[in-house]
């Protein structure tokens, strides 16, 4: 249940930010509303599954991830 509530709060924040940024850039309420409904909706679904994936691997190590992608050298 906590994951769902976290996802919903993320969705609300993302919608508000998406609307504000798009309105600031375009000055159009309809364009801002369209962007704020589409992009955050998709991103919220992705975020939920992203959170589930992170919970699956308790041994995940950020340093290890960076070394696998070539950003850091593991010793």
Description:
By secondary structure, the protein is mostly helical. It has one domain (2-68). 80% of the residues lie in helices and 0% in strands. The chain contains three helices and no strands. It is elongated. The relative contact order is 0.12.
Quick recap:
The chain has helices spanning 2-26, 29-56, 62-68.
What share of residues are in beta strands? Answer: under 5%
Number of strands: 0
Compute the number of structural domains.
Answer: 1
> What can be said about the biggest beta sheet?
none
Q: Give the overall silhouette.
A: elongated
Structural class estimated from helices and strands: mainly alpha
Cα end-to-end separation? 40 Å
Mean of pLDDT: 81
Helix content: over 70%
Note poorly predicted spans: none
List the total number of helices: 3
Secondary structure layout plus pairing:
Blueprint: H1 2-26, H2 29-56, H3 62-68
Please describe the structure with a list of short key phrases separated by commas or semicolons.
0% strand; single chain; 75 residues
């Amino acid at each position: 249940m906590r994951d769902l509530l976290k996802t919903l709060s993320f969705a609300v924040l993302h919608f508000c930010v998406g609307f504000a940024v798009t309105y600031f850039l375009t000055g159009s309420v309809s364009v801002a509303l369209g962007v704020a409904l589409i992009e955050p909706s998709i991103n919220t679904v992705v975020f939920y599954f992203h959170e589930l994936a992170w919970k699956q691997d308790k041994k995940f190590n950020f340093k290890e991830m960076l070394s696998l992608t070539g950003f850091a050298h593991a010793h």
